[in-house]
Amino acid sequence: MLGVITRFAVTSMVMWMAPVAIISGFYYHMFPGVSQMSSSAQTLTSGFLAVMSVNMVIGFYIFMTMKETPHRPQPDPTFLANTKVGINQPTSSQVIDDSKGKGKIE
Q: What digits encode the pLDDT tens for the residues 43-75?
């Protein structure tokens, strides 16, 4: 369970940090060739790449989740034993069928 939470937390952080890093890189001209682009081209390219990075992180998270082995929860053995005992014991509310006197008025 801790692995699932850790994987979710890390994926959430990367999903937040990747688009911010891409947009910041375009804004501060950290990528080569960005300074020759027009302002609108920088905005469109950085936005497109930021959206693609989020989609890639989501796809990677889905892939990792599908790859993990399923965990089937096992019922508590004490609970199962008590349930079996309870099923086999008759209760006081059970009606005994007496078909001998049924329908006769005496």
A: 999 999 999 999 999 999 999 989 888 778 888
Domain ranges of the chain: 39-70
State how far the Cα of 54 lies from the Cα of 59, in Å rounded to an integer: 9
Contact 23, 46 (CB under 8 A): yes
For every residue of 56-69, DSSP letters joined together read: HHHHHHHHHHHHSP
Give the position of tokens 């078909």. 99
Question: Do 34 and 26 contact (CB within 8 A), yes or no?
Answer: yes
DSSP 47: H
Spatial distance between the Cα atoms of 88 and 80, rounded to a whole number of angstroms: 13
DSSP conformation class of 99? -
Task: Please give the structure tokens belonging to residue 51.
Answer: 């959206």
> Sign (positive/negative) of CA torsion 88, 92, 98, 103?
negative
Long-range contacts of 12-16, Cβ-Cβ distance < 8 Å, separation of 24 or more: 14/57, 15/54, 15/57, 15/58
pTM of the predicted protein model: 0.62
